[in-house]
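Progress against Task 2.4 (sequence-to-structure conversion) is shown through the following example record, which the project officer requested during the mid-term review.
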Amino acid sequence: MGNVIVGATMSLDGFMNDRNGDVSRLYPDLEALRRTEMLQEEIRTTGAVVMGRHAYDMAEGDLTDYEYQVPIFVLTHHVPEKAVKGENDKLTVTFVTDGIEKAIEKAKAAAGDKQVMVVGGANTAQQCLRAGLVDEIHIGIVPVLLGEGLRFFEPGGNEQLELERTRVFESSTRTDLWFRVVK
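Structure tokens generated for the chain above:
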């Protein structure tokens, strides 16, 4: 089975969005990011995605142009009534209402030997970290200061987490860091 990787993009001061929930300053050129070898490699090696409901709602249920064309498992308390756009023979969406452990279990089964990416939400990532389900953390740091907003790492719960840096990727718009969770 592949690894479970928590991925996030954040500002230099550690925020995943600004005080209004806006992420646009963290993705000044999303199309250029999609063309990077770093993201292309992640797309090739990812077999399933787990995302939080907020990340799903940001796309307004339309995953037609989503970079990961794999089974997606959305962690939620309530399944939306609106139909998902963009499902095809590769990209399917399953709403998981019985916790992060079940979402990861289903994603691992769907991914086979490929990795499971946990994306788009501090809450979902924190649940994975607290449950000990994460093998790696991938953080993209964008050189902007947001001052306020949603933090990826909140105080409490992760102080005992031991990490080993495994890789660094630098581009003109961001620095990406990979860490292995030492178990």
